Amino acid sequence: MATPVLRVESLCKSFGGVHAIRDLSFDVNEAQILGLIGPNGSGKSTTVNSLAGLFPITSGAITLAGAKIDNLPEYDRVAKGLSRTFQTASTFTEFTVRDHVVLGCNVTRTSHPLSSVFGIGRKSSEEEDLAARVDRILDITDLTPVQDQRVGTISSAQQRFLMIATALASNPKVILLDEPAAGLVSHERKTLSDLIKKIRDLGTSVLVIEHHMALIMEVCDRIVVLNFGQKIAEGTPEEIRNNPVVIDAYLGEAA
Amino acid sequence: MARNRTFILYWLALVGFVLLPQLISVKYYIHLCVLALIWVIAAQGQNLIQGYTGYVSIVQAGFMGIGAYSTALMGMHFDLPVWLTIILAPFVTAFFALLTGYPSLRVKGHYFAIVTLAFNMVIFIVLMNFHDLTQGEAGITGIPKPGGKDALFNWRDRETYYYFVLIIAALMTGLAALIVRSRIGQILVAIRQNEDLVGAVGIAAWKYKLFAFVTSAMFAGLAGAIYAHYQSFINPEIFGIAQSLDAILAVIIGGSGTIAGPIIGAFFVVFLPEYLRFADSFRLILYGLVLVLATIFMPRGIAGIARDLMEKRRGRT
After folding, report:
1. Which segments in chain A show pLDDT lower than 50?
2. N or C: which end of chain A has fewer CB within 10 A?
3. What is the DSSP string of A118-174?
């Protein structure tokens, strides 16, 4: 029996009279890649934003590793182990790639921020661990060659990988990837799918929203399909591919 | 290498500042230098919230006023030594900054600027009308100089005060440099670049914004306290919105988000109006024109231009 790391129960989110998500429940299990797909406007991004704490949910419950997180602000959810990337590249363009990832490590630090001003109470072991972890993350995201470049000068594909690298820096239990393949060309998508699988193999669960079906079908262990804010199907890629309701609502005959 | 060179430049500048009174024969210019150094402290604070965090605050002079009045009043009513009241003044200012910063930092951009401007107006009105405490427009006179009766130095001498303020300004500049080079400084710059993303990487931006705002106010409170004991007289006029705008301009003209910027900018806003005296009644118009042109053509300030030139030279060699 797989253990759920992230559990979503009867999640509802309304914007005024518009019900963006209705009674949505699913689990993301340990070391699992769960895909969230559906037509435009089906509530995928609203789900991710609700999970990440960008806005309050209307009702329902979100638990991470057994602890309720739906009342926590966004930054506390990251500290608890839920990090995310954005649909459009969102970065700190003036930083170097390495400093960008280091900033993502902030929640894992145990020393007080003021210790970095006066140098009192600074833990050298913490800095060493952090540097080693950043090296490892830069390595698996293929960003080592550009680590000293400013973020504004690297390619948009590299910026997308940088968002994932920064999200990984917080040592998350679950990482939410919001359309990570948007704007990537075919060989970059291949690198991305390898990276997503590597993240899972290293023990972090992944919830991925994506329109690129080949990528979803290749990397996901399970898939949840949304339509009009409701779950219409859940299953393995094979089951979803052959589900007549999903074909009718989203995939179409050619899938 | 570049960092070493900058470090040497700062030391050379400090040596220059130490020698400056020996090179100036007109005492009035030493007085202006003291004022400029006091402005360096306030502008370094303004730079933390405006230049690094990206929040333009229009209350720096108001906080200088709180620092100035609190040092004067603590000395008058509790008979505390001058040194102690100067040290306590930034903490009194910090208390008011906490009260005002918490609600005002919930809004961004122009809204934040307007809320802080309103706080400066409130401070000004209170100083003007709370007659029993502040003595209103007449102000407080006879604020003692540091040192007392059997002081080691002659504090009435402007040169003595110049060196005193120089030491404080250098220390506060050093403190500002330590803050911006620390993890906290990195986070402040991250907030300036993309505040929404800061939350998504697990950082509570409001704590750091409040830290920047309160620290900035403490710099202003200290500057105000030093000013009060230097002039021996304070009234609300010098802690109004116009002076808060001077703090903003000092940061912009000197170079926003740089450590050298507020130093250059502070001297600029103190000396420029003096040099424009030849224009008589057109002085302030000319001052305004120079500032507008400087902001349009030097958006990164004098320090920004200097850095660009240095980088260009380094690139060529």
Report:
1. 255
2. N
3. H-TT--HHHHHHHHHHHHHHHHHTT-GGGTTSBGGGS-HHHHHHHHHHHHHTT--SE
B163's CB contacts (< 8 A; 6+ apart) are B18, B21
Whole-angstrom CA distances from B298 to B42, B249, B256, B293 are: 22, 12, 11, 8
Average pLDDT over residues B45-49: 96
Interface of B with A (CB under 8 A): 178-179, 182-184, 186-187, 189-190, 193-194, 196-205
Chain A residues with CB under 8 Å of B202 CB are 75, 78-79, 83, 104, 106-107, 170
Nearest CA in chain A to B179: A117
CA separation for the pair A233, A223 (Å, rounded): 8
ipTM: 0.90
pLDDT tens sequence across B21-39: 888 888 889 999 999 999 9
Beta-bridged to residue A12, according to DSSP, are A59
Interhelix angle B82-104/B60-78, nearest 10 degrees = 140
Q: Cα(B275)–Cα(A30) distance, rounded to whole angstroms?
A: 71
Q: Which pair of tokens denotes residue A91? A: 């970065």
B204 to chain A: nearest residue by CA?
Answer: A75
Q: How many CA atoms lie within 13 A of B315 on its CB side?
A: 6
Cβ-defined contact of B186 to A99 (cutoff 8 Å): yes
- Residue B250 domain-assigned? no
Task: Report domain A1-81+172-255's class.
Answer: alpha beta
Total structural domains within chain B: 1
Domain that holds residue B162: 29-240
In a domain, B305, yes or no: no
| A51: closest chain B residue by CA | B200
